[in-house]
Amino acid sequence: GESVGLHLPTLSVQEGDNSIINCAYSNSASDYFIWYKQESGKGPQFIIDIRSNMDKRQGQRVTVLLNKTVKHLSLQIAATQPGDSAVYFCAENNNAGNMLTFGGGTRLMVKP
Amino acid sequence: EAQVTQNPRYLITVTGKKLTVTCSQNMNHEYMSWYRQDPGLGLRQIYYSMNVEVTDKGDVPEGYKVSRKEKRNFPLILESPSPNQTSLYFCASSSSIKTGTDTQYFGPGTRLTVL
Prior knowledge:
Order of helices and strands of chain A: EEEEEEEEEE
Shape of chain A: globular
Strand content of chain B: over 45%
Number of helices of chain A: 0
Low-confidence stretches of chain A: 1-6
Structural class of chain A: mainly beta
Largest sheet of chain A: 6 strands, mixed
Mean pLDDT of chain A: 89
Structural class of chain B: mainly beta
Number of strands of chain A: 10
Helix content of chain B: under 10%
Largest interface: A-B, 29 and 31 residues
Shape of chain B: globular
Number of helices of chain B: 0
Distance between the termini of chain A: 21 Å
Mean pLDDT of chain B: 92
Radius of gyration of chain B: 13 Å
Helix content of chain A: under 10%
Oligomer: heterodimer
Low-confidence stretches of chain B: none
Largest sheet of chain B: 7 strands, mixed
C-alpha cells in the first residue's frame, strides 16, 4: 500500500489493551477538531469529532478529550484490536472554519 | 454508494508536462478540497472550494490550479509539474466543514511521480 510516513511516532500496544494517542494543536481560535484513521493504501477515514465547547465526546470504543488550556487533544481507543492498526491524524478547523490543518500523525501498531 | 473517486490512481510524468487529476463526488457536497501527503509532513491543504465557482488557496497552493464548474467535480491541475510535486494526493468532500456533524470523505489517493 501507499506509505504514509517513514518517521512517524509509533505507539505499540497489546491486543485488548487501551490506546491513547495524543495531539497538540496550534491555533487557540480553532473551534472544531477531528480524528482520522488512515490504513495503508487508503484515504483518511473520519473517526470522531469534537467542538471547542466540549471537553469530552464518546463514540463506539473511542473517546476524544479536549484540553483547551494546553491546546491538547487525545484519542482513546478501548480494547484495541488488530483492525485498529493504522496511522491516526488529528485535525483542527481554522481560517474562519474553512480549512482543516492536520497534525503529523501517529502510527498505532497492535500486537496480537 | 457514497464515494469520492480520483483518477488516475497512479501517474508517472516528466517535468513540465501538464496534467490533471480528476475528483468526483456523488454526495451533492458543497465543500471539496485537495491535499497532498508527504512523509514527515502529514496532510497539507492545497486548495478548497466552498461551492461552485468558489475556490480558495490552502496552505500550499503554489504550482497548482483548480476549478469548480460543477458541484460534483473538482479537478487539480498542474500546469508545469516539477519533481517537488511528487506526492500522494487526496481529494475530499463534505456537506459543510463548519457544522461539526458532517464527515469529510476522502478519495483513495493519487500517487504522482514527477521525473
